């Protein structure tokens, strides 16, 4: 059994992990990457490089590299909760706010190395490397990804552009930046 599998929270074999558990899990995996357990991080000028680190019935864990100007499009995770931890560099995240002072709009945040974000299955966001340096992050989804929906924002409302069935956070059939 791998260290990642041993670190998975103790819940039932089919019980999804919540956002807090996923944040702790991505922090654990990020530390494993820092310690050299996963020396295969690469950078690709054409698209974000990504590698699955672990998957079981409850959780799916990915290592993703981001060169400057690489990013996603506004998307959800098909009802899966998720988390990401930034190992190096920084990532900008635009979140579609459903409540609070930014309701019906987008709110941008910058996350630096060491920062983690956890979210529920209703979360819609866009993540980009707007800095001048490469970035590396660990992402986890629970239950494991089965689809992603891509959106545009029109007058404060999400407009669905495409839904893609996928178990990969970088689907080849979805909208690309």
Commentary on this structure:
The protein has 177 residues and is mainly beta. It has one domain (15-165): Sandwich (Jelly Rolls). It is 12% helix and 39% strand.
- CATH architectural group: Sandwich
CATH class division: Mainly Beta
Q: How far is it from the N-terminal to the C-terminal residue, by CA? A: 37 Å
Low-confidence stretches: none
Number of domains: 1
Mean pLDDT: 88
CATH topology heading: Jelly Rolls
Helix content: 10-25%
Bulk shape:
globular
Which characteristics define this entry?
single chain; 177 residues; mainly beta; five-stranded antiparallel β-sheet; three-stranded antiparallel β-sheet
Strands, helices and their partners?
Elements: H1 3-7, H2 19-34, E1 49-55, E2 60-66, E3 81-88, E4 90-96, E5 106-112, E6 116-119, E7 125-128, E8 135-142, E9 147-154, E10 157-165
Antiparallel strand pairs: 1-2, 2-8, 3-6, 3-8, 4-5, 4-7, 9-10
Brief write-up:
The chain has 177 residues and is mostly beta strands.
